[in-house]
Amino acid sequence: MVARGRATIRFDAKVNTVTTPQNPTPRGSSLRERYAARPAPNSAPAPAPEVVEPTVPAASSDPYGLDARSVPAQWRDTPQESHDVGNTSSIDTSFEPVAPSYSHTDSDDFARDDDYRVNTKRDRPQMGVRAVLANKFGIPVGKGKAELEYDHLITRINRGLRNPKVIGVLGGKGGVGKTTSAMVLASTLAQHRSKPVVAVTLDYNDTLALRTKAVADAPRGNLSILDFATDATIRTPNDVAGCMRNNKHRLSVLGTGLSALKHEVLTPEQFLRGLDILKRNYELIVVDFGNAPNTETYWTALESLDSMVLVTSTENDSLQGSRRVEEIARDAGLLELMDQRTTVLVNHRSSAEPKVNLETFVNRMHSVKAREVLDIPWDDHLSESGPVDLDLLSKPTRYQYVRAAALVVSSLPA
Q1: What span, in angstroms and rounded, lies between the C-alpha atoms of 328 and 332?
Q2: CATH assignment, 163-411
């Protein structure tokens, strides 16, 4: 035994360890040995997992039910009922039940199992009754499954991109809500992404500018894409910012259309020059296409797209017009764009039930596995045809556009 100050160290000849009164546990013991020595909390065998046979949904009684219309309850203004599209009578249910097993999917990103923290402080819910209990009464409740899924959509919108990307919004005819959809989609992207987003129009009217409520006056906020591309004085980021209108959702807008009275024509070279300037200042460029695909500039703009949003309404001529846009894209050789990087939005232009067979249209569009079809409900605010404010949208409409933004960003090449 040797005394060193206040501590006394004892050497044991039989055991090759060093212990102190303050630390009687041998220093050489591992965590595995320490936890192996602990008594088991319960030696009873765990009960076998209950095997629940999946139920087959009944055939839809709603002729206009869309699988993409399903909206969580807290995002509904009025009680709604969701139905699956398709005939379920042919589904084979004569399979053997399989014990449940865990497999990681993209939907599990919000609930990863590699977090070793215990008793952590969780994010407060912001939706439904849970938000009232947590924020008003201070009850420690966490977010529900629907809110976690919504957060996962926001995470998908914030997916990182290596290079600037171009998103085109097209429609088969006028009056389908193409410009309004472009404005809502671009505003949703700008609100949730950290890097800047811009929306421009190739049309011969100022509809995109009319959908923008600017929060501040821009020095040169009335330029068209032609003016922007041919102005040699636009060089620095400040010069570019001075040409843009900005709304409350941080979206920059170059929304003045070409002037038909001045016989203005945007050439492919001018479009590409303007697009190059935009790519040096913005991460996402949303292009609102015109309704006359008979120019070389239209084809050039179509070939520059990284993702496409095809907008249609619930009228028969609009649904037929979407086929025309699809044929144009295929004739241009843009098969990958049309089949794998296209999202279809079906706008309801009134609160009345549509008089067309939407199920047939959706089934045809879903014939390509990678293509998604979303149903956009009729919305009071969007029907005003005025400046778009995301905060004034109904909950189902806003939720569907968040889904659309997540789908579009997910379809973009890295």
Answers
A1: 6
A2: 3.40.50.300
